[in-house]
Amino acid sequence: MQGLLRSLWDYRFFILSSIKNDFHSRFVRSKLGGFWVILQPLSQVLIYAFILSNLLSSRIQGVEGPYGYAIYLMAGLLAWNLFTEVLDRCMKVFVSNANTMKKVKFPRIALPIIAIGSSIVNNVVLFVLINVIFLALGHAVTPLIGFYFLLVPIVAILAAGTGIALGVINVFVRDIEQVVPIIIQVLFWFTPIVYPANVVPEAYTKILSLSPIYVLVESYHAIFVFGTVPNLAPLAAVTALGLALCGLALFLFRRASADMVDVL
């Protein structure tokens, strides 16, 4: 572990410059800049709001106005997009950078760190743009949105632990890339993003609440939609789970790193 941390520190400028280059390629060199970051979640919001707004708006208690459902959607998607982007990029990072790993000498664990950092930067830009939209829609933005900066590392840790472990396995079993998106799609519909949790029967709500993603999304809803402090006890449990998954991922990475380049 100390060796991994030391190597990351020694290559810190490489990691930071890679994150910076990713940001420049996405925002600075693009004519529409940050608009691309919000285009996908905004299109999802427009589609779901058009179809489900009249049906579900009245079920979101504590949110008034014609845009309550759209605000609820955007808050949930902010959490979901960070989780899925970190997981997806970490899962594919070793396969996608196979040529780099073969030709350039550097600590390979830097690759998922760069992916995580770039995903967080993208999500922070989305966070800023969503708050601008909230203000434009007349939704009050409270100081409690500062909890966002506590939730981001929790989401990233959980997604990174899962993604890096899957990324190592993906080097040897390429079916992982095909199976995981299906699981993610199922998980999306079992998480109260498109619908509020109170539309689900209580017996099923207790089952859904066992999902760490459920805890994270509800925490985002608390600070962005309802202006309340998130429940910290479940967040602590999710953090512990994320750290455990990161430990497992690093164990798998160290055991497999010697063979990864040969397989790739």
Automatic annotation (TrEMBL):
Pfam families: ABC2_membrane (PF01061). The chain crosses the membrane at residues 35-57, 69-88, 109-135, 147-172, 179-200, 220-253. It is found in: Cell inner membrane; Cell membrane. InterPro entries: ABC2_TM (IPR013525), ABC2_TM_bact-type (IPR047817). It is a multi-pass membrane protein. One of its GO terms (molecular function) is ABC-type transporter activity. Residues 32-256 form the ABC transmembrane type-2 domain. It comes from the Bacteria. Its main location: membrane. GO terms for cellular component: plasma membrane. One of its GO terms (biological process) is lipopolysaccharide transport. Keywords: Cell membrane, Membrane, Polysaccharide transport, Sugar transport, Transmembrane, Transmembrane helix, Transport. PANTHER family: CAPSULE POLYSACCHARIDE EXPORT INNER-MEMBRANE PROTEIN CTRC (PTHR30413:SF10), INNER MEMBRANE TRANSPORT PERMEASE (PTHR30413). Belongs to the ABC-2 integral membrane protein family. This is Transport permease protein. It comes from Devosia crocina.
